Amino acid sequence: VSPADHLRETFSNVFDGIECITINNGTDTKDFADKVFVSTNSGPVKCLIVDSNFSASPKIDLPYLQAIADSKVVELVTVGLNSPFTGSNVSNLGYLNSREEMIDVIRSCDVMLYFSRVDNYPLTLIEGLCGGIFVCAHDSPAYREITNGFDSMVLPSDPSGFMDTLQRPEVVQRIRSTEDKNRRMKRAIEKYSFEEVVEKYHNLYKTLI
């Protein structure tokens, strides 16, 4: 069993003759499902970046984030230890050990940033979608698979291009639309709930018994 289609395809190409199926990872969505999203943000777009430790993470594009922080064009919200970013447009929340608090932070932001190109099926992206927020990430097989069917954006290689995009009124409206956020949240909760994962494993086990 593979958590992602791109991994299943690689596995099947390497191990010819072995059947491999995909059952995507899921998350506990009940805390997301309990709330209806009402967008209240105005002013600069709020961009969220989550990492366990910013000083020891090869997956974070620190120069890209520094350019965002220096620009003052957007508000940067960080969750994780040792954030190096400072400024009037930066909110460093540190390590959060409360899931409820983490969900509230996700839902308070407009955009989730994600830089890893090597993660197989990151739950961070799934929880961002379940929180209804817009995902902007470096292109990768995992990003394409998780966001398939969702409105999202591949990060431009140049951070100035990204920040120019986030200042366009039609893009801000697209990101902050309450209707779109609730639609995104509803679809992600249906697709990535634990209940959906358990049902798929249950059906698999029935074929094996």
Structure description:
It is a single chain. This protein has helices spanning 5-14, 30-33, 62-71, 99-108, 123-130, 141-146, 159-165, 169-176, 178-192, 194-208; strands at residues 46-53, 75-81, 90-92, 111-114, 134-137, 152-154. The model has no long low-confidence stretch (mean pLDDT 89). It has a six-stranded parallel beta sheet, with helices on both faces. It has ten helices and six strands, in the order ααβαββαβαβαβαααα. The chain is globular. With 209 residues, the chain is α/β, with parallel strands linked by helices. α5 packs across α9 (178-192).
The averaged pLDDT comes out at 89
Which structural category do the helix and sheet elements fall into? Answer: alpha/beta
The helix fraction, in percent, is 40-55%
Low-confidence stretches: none
Largest sheet: 6 strands, parallel
Instruction: Note the beta-strand portion.
Output: 5-15%
